[in-house]
Amino acid sequence: MNDEPIKVRRDGHVLEVTLDRPKANAIDLATSRIMGEVFTEFRDDPQLRVAIVTGAGEKFFCPGWDLKAAADGDAVDGDYGKGGFGGLQELRGLNKPVIAAVNGICCGGGLELALSADMILAAGHATFALPEIRSGTVADAASIKLPKRIPYHIAMEMLFTGRWLDAEEAARWGLINHIYPAENLMNEARKLAELLASGPPLVYAAIKEVVREAEDMKFQDALNRITASQFETVETLYRSEDQKEGARAFAEKRDPVWKGR
């Protein structure tokens, strides 16, 4: 249906998820629940290997929480559905690459949505901020994630003042990976997604689990967990056909054929 707030497009192993709620692509409870279902299906579908999340139009990626819906009764502590707000930031076991293609204003919960991706590409006119301070609220997920992603003092300035970063400054601090002209953004996101989709899905899964679980662990403790066979995805990889295929392909000087098993 054309009035659905989330547009989904499958292209081979790649899933494109477009937030389409005029005028600003804000997320209300119902939309968040739909997003949770979409990303859960992506997680659980063995044919899908990479997701791209973006916004419709040229002005907004996502400003976060829909304040109009809140004024109409949506509770800020309501049921966001699977994966929490936006379906991504609390979705357990999501061991596939996710790319955020930020096509415009990205603030508040929209920035938290982008931070839930593994890589962030941005249009040249994209801007980033956490304006919650001005409305007397806390950017809760960003308060946890942002100081771990960019220099502490820059993160705290964003949280304390709500000031905006343009794409160039966001790239300088390492908040985003690449900047592209707006008209090229989705083509570049698709090129990156195809590159990832051609890679070894079981290795991606192992990387994501190790990175996620080791975030708050000491290096040796995390390494000990790997050597003690305590990461399920790592053990799956080492017992897989793909692991053997990778070794054979290297020895035979050819490209490997990954099957995800």
Question: Top keywords for this entry?
Answer:
single chain, 261 residues, alpha/beta, 2-enoyl-CoA Hydratase, Chain A, domain 1, four-stranded mixed beta sheet, 10 strands, globular
Number of helices: 11
What percent strand? Answer: 15-25%
> How would you describe the shape?
globular
Separation of termini?
A: 35 Å
What strand order characterises the main sheet?
A: 1-2-3-5-7-10
Q: State the order of secondary-structure elements, H for helix, E for strand.
A: EEHEEHEEHEEHHEHEHHHHH
Number of strands: 10
Query: What Rg do the Cα atoms give?
Result: 19 Å
Detail the poorly predicted runs.
none
CATH architecture identity of the largest domain: Alpha-Beta Complex
Report the helical percentage.
40-55%
Structurally, how many domains make up the residues? 2
**CATH evolutionary superfamily of the largest domain:** 2-enoyl-CoA Hydratase, Chain A, domain 1
Q: Which fold name fills CATH's third level, the topology of the largest domain? A: 2-enoyl-CoA Hydratase, Chain A, domain 1
Q: How confident overall, as mean pLDDT?
A: 92
Protein described:
- The protein folds into two domains: 6-197, 2-enoyl-CoA Hydratase, Chain A, domain 1; 201-252.
- The chain has eleven helices and ten strands.
- It has helices at 29-44, 67-71, 109-115, 140-149, 152-161, 167-172, 185-197, 201-214, 219-227, 232-238, 241-252, and strands at residues 6-11, 14-19, 50-55, 60-62, 98-102, 105-107, 119-123, 127-129, 165-166, 178-180.
- The strands form two sheets. Strands 1-2-3-5-7-10 form a six-stranded mixed sheet, sandwiched between helices. A four-stranded mixed sheet has the order 4-6-8-9.
- Strand 1 and strand 2 form a beta hairpin.
- Helix 4 (140-149) packs antiparallel against helix 5 (152-161) and helix 8 packs antiparallel against helix 10 (232-238).
- The longest helix is centred in the first third of the chain and has 16 residues, at 29-44.
- The protein is globular, with a radius of gyration of 19 Å.
- The chain starts with 5 loop residues before the first strand and ends in a 9-residue tail after the last helix.
